[in-house]
Amino acid sequence: xxxxxxxxxxxxxxxxxxxxxxxxxxxxxxxxxxxxxxxxxxxxxxxxxxxxxxxxxxxxxxxxxxxxxxxxxxxxxxxxxxxxxxxxxxxxxxxxxxxxxxxxxxxxxxxxxxxxxxxxxxxxxxxxxxxxxxxxxxxxxxxxxxxxxxxxxxxxxxxxxxxxxxxxxxxxxxxxxxxxxxxxxxxxxxxxxxxxxxxxxxxxxxxxxxxxxxxxxxxxxxxxxxxxxxxxxxxxxxxxxxxxxxxxxxxxxxxxxxxxxxxxxxxxxxxxxxxxxxxxxxxxxxxxxxxxxxxxxxxxxxxxxxxxxxxxxxxxxxxxxxxxxxxxxxxxxxxxxxxxxxxxxxxxxxxxxxxxxxxxxxxxxxxxxxxxxxxxxxxxxxxxxxxxxxxxxxxxxxxxxxxxxxxxxxxxxxxxxxxxxxxxxx
Length: 426
Prior knowledge:
Elements: E1 2-8, H1 11-23, E2 27-33, H2 45-49, H3 53-58, E3 66-72, H4 81-94, E4 102-107, E5 114-120, H5 134-148, H6 156-165, H7 176-184, H8 187-190, H9 196-204, E6 208-217, E7 220-229, E8 241-242, H10 252-267, H11 271-282, H12 289-297, E9 301-307, E10 313-320, E11 325-328, H13 329-332, H14 338-345, H15 358-368, H16 386-391, H17 407-421
Antiparallel strand pairs: 1-3, 2-4, 3-5, 4-5, 6-7, 7-8, 9-10, 10-11
Helix pairs in contact: 4-5
């Protein structure tokens, strides 16, 4: 079992990310500890957040008080809901969070069924719960849980090897062939994509590009692939490497089969619906390109933009590292296409927008979101259509697991600070 511990300042973000899975029937709430329950068993983000309010109000100095933990058994493990609950309780008890309010979500939208736990890392008095030697403690605890519940062991050596598989190529270190091989031999085993263009968008994250070529051999035209290393500017900096140098898994035949397999697999799973909602929320107030990318990167979504020599955007691809799926923007809808983003960021649809200063843009955004989520939650989503609203009903954040500038969240945090500073009436 692998445990991943995330810390952030967005309680709403962590809850929203998981509640969205529930709303899309890709997850469910398994267990709640010291949480306020409802009579009908249905929950919204704001209702769940209310259980953590006293802790956040009391928080003294901890900047990133939100805990977002995922516990991931081996895909071959068959873990019942009851066992997942006990695993979560054991983990939280031993890590020192057993007396904290927390909610356990089960995710079922990918083959690797796993659980997420949302809590806070400060106690009722606002003091930070010690996280000293947290990683070492967590790894030791995972080994103990594996033995107790007869789970497959995730050996430290194997984890280290897997982490090294997807290291970006750095041509300055030499031995480019070996660096390329570690990525292209394995990446198709983990990610799903439907076109060579999407494949290249994924490879670009690791400073690699692939080109389809045609060779005439003994009068027969044969297709193949060549791989190149790229620098930080996306320029080729190596000789071409034939796919055959990396084995059959890197060749065009296997890749073509993977494209077809991915198409069927992605058709059967609603990964794109969750991704679309994340993009809609990230696009709110038309942030600039860097802000947009940052917001998505903070929730595990990479954005690859392609431009021509004049600067026009002709391609946008999104890589969702949670579901391990790659999506060309136009496949998600015309509002996520290259043309749509070109209009926003290059000012095609509103030339006057280009003349605004960065200060004016920021002030415009702030004025637009001067609203309390708790008082008028429905107003936060006036920019969404009815279909999107039904999907994210009750969610009070722009981005799940956001670590960046989230204005709804900042509003919430500011009110918590004001309550903290208010003197009790005599």
